[in-house]
Amino acid sequence: MKRLVERRMRTDLKPVKEALDLWDTFDFDVVQVVGSNGKGTVVHLLEKVLVKLGRETVSCTSPHLISPTERVKHNGRCLDNSEFYETLFELDRLTKNKMTSFELLFLLAVQVAVERNVDYLLLEAGMGGRWDATSALNANCTILTGVELEHTEYLGSTREEILAELTAQIPFKSGLIVPELEPEISEQIKKLVQKRNLVLSEVEPTKSVLVQNRKLVANTLIFLDEIELTSAVELLEKIEPPPCRQTLLQQDGRSYFLDVAHTPSAVAAALEARPGLEAGNWYTAFGCLQSKRAQEMMNIILERCPAERLFLTEPPSPRKMPLQTLVEKGPEDAKSSGAEDINQLFLNLSEPGDGLTVLGSFSLAALFYNK
Questions:
Q1: Which end of the chain has less Cβ packing within 10 Å, N or C?
Q2: CA–CA separation, 107 vs 101, rounded Å?
Q3: Would you give the distance in Å from CA 251 to the centre of its chain?
Q4: What percent of the chain has pLDDT over 90?
Q5: 224 is in which domain, residue-wise?
Q6: CB contact at 8 A, 237 and 225
Q7: Tell me, what's the pLDDT at 170?
Q8: In this structure, are 327 and 281 located in the same domain?
């Protein structure tokens, strides 16, 4: 994967669409998930229910926790290493080494979906929608998880501009599943629905991100005519979210609460969902990528965590916000350390019964999860 990762993203779907000519027909339905938060969780929940209903699925998500093979799954199971890499590099050869790594992973998902004659291909968009590789196939249904001010250098400087990028690719007469959003955003969505003759399904607002994601999936299943609402809700309540989504772990007499939250609203939702400690205090480790709204996220964290119990760090990612930059934005009393040393710092300063919350980046949460 190393030589593939170095290739940069582009704002042009033509190469990917041309690569789709490798296959004659596509006999599966496509569900695309776009938005700022919760895309991976929505794909995970939807896939689990469809498999329980006896449907064949392939999913394509990103990023991964442990291995790149997690990114393409058949019926919720990772491909084995040999199939994953052999097929990936064969696709790279067939497309004359012109695809980005993300485009190749999308094409790998398509290849597996065609080979195994699945019912559904479930696609998590990487960034935006208009130019995302997953938009090369027309979706039967699109799920919008939310609209945040992120990736503004690519998607626009306002939520209205970002929404336009997230939804530009939605095909005419397809389905659109959305949470209930602010009036100005909802009005923009309604205009889109009218213009493209979409079937709109809105989910009632809720403080819990997990509950909202379950509702989005339930409404999607109804649109797909797979199940009725009561049965969908019952099934979804029994399915756990994927790792590092409000994940609570115990080790050495201490608690660890891991969440991949990387926007202000997601950080607030994670802290709202975090359980209380019977005897002890929560500490927080925070690190994010360069393009994220670090100051706003830290302000939200500091409403619940004293500065002296805040650890600032760098996620293990090439796109990390440098620790010095984060320290300059953070409070004076916050501690700072490399990601590999944060847990030892926490153990040195804490007592049994205390807990560490890890927020701000998928790679940072994954680091603690893998330990």
A1: C
A2: 10
A3: 26
A4: 84
A5: 2-237
A6: no
A7: 96
A8: yes
Of the given ranges (3-17, 106-120, 292-306), which has the lowest mean pLDDT? 3-17
Alpha-carbon gap, residue 126 to 129, rounded angstroms: 8
Q: Which residues of 279-312 are buried (b: 16+ CB within 10 A; e: fewer)?
A: ebebbbbbbbbeebbbeebbebbbeebeeebbbb
Contacts 24+ apart (CB under 8 A), 326-329: 326/286, 326/287, 326/288, 326/294, 329/294, 329/295, 329/298
Q: What is the pLDDT of residue 148?
A: 86
Res 3 pLDDT > 90: no
CA 129, 130, 132: angle at the middle one, nearest 5?
60
Q: How many angstroms separate the first and last alpha carbons of the chain?
A: 23
Give the CA distances from residue 95 to residues 22, 87, 135, 137, 313, in Å, rounded to whole numbers and listed in that order. Answer: 9, 12, 18, 17, 39
Q: CA 64 from chain center: how many Å?
A: 10
| 72-74/77-78 β-pairing | antiparallel
What percent of the chain shows pLDDT beyond 70? 98
Residues 169 and 259 in one domain: no
Alpha-carbon distances, residue 51 vs 26, 147, 172 (angstroms): 20, 29, 28
- Of 260, 299, 9, give the one whose Cα is nearest residue 155: 9
Residues 255 and 231 in one domain: no
Name residue 32's beta-bridge partners: 123, 142
- Residue 142's domain is classified under what CATH number? 3.40.1190.10
What is the pTM for the complete model shown?
A: 0.93
Asked whether residue 359 carries a pLDDT value surpassing 80, the answer given is: yes
200's tokens? 């709109």
Answer whether residue 242 is part of any domain: no
DSSP state at residue 289 = B
